[in-house]
Amino acid sequence: MLHMRYIVGILVAIGLVVLLIFLLFSGGGTPQTGKSLSSYANSDAVARLTIDGPEGSQQTHHSVEIEVSRDSVTLRKLQGYDGQVIDIRSYDSNLNSYEVFLHALGHAGFTKGNTDANMKDERGYCPLGERYVFELDQDGKSIIRYWATSCGNPKTYGGNLGITLGLFQKQVPDYDSLVSNFQLND
What we know:
The protein is α+β, with helices and mostly antiparallel strands.
């Protein structure tokens, strides 16, 4: 009887290790189009992160947008709900950099998420925190659009939030100094 418990325990442990390995390496996913994320590297596709600050007045509401493409990386600081640009910084990029970035996003699970039409709109969720919107657009059409919040659930983004945010922020060479004085939490 005791011998049987050890065998069952070992089989369960092996099953958990296999499951863990599968979960770690299945983060690449594919967009809803069936193409791999990195296949967009040599196109006009744009990956975008919007960090939308807490709800507030038109004058105190702020957000940050990072847009990464094959040729450039752009950071915009926005004020109000109409997205008035109050600062913009652009940096050169290239195909190799963009391709590596898309591969990394794929491994972070950028293409994973809930496509339920009832959860499309992130507005109003986590009103005192931040909302993170992840997008991939090509030719003016949305290929991927998911969101998450600093409050946790609900969300539609199924990838690794911390890694994905870090990947976008690392695309802007002076991200920390650019946003240090910019109050998302007025």
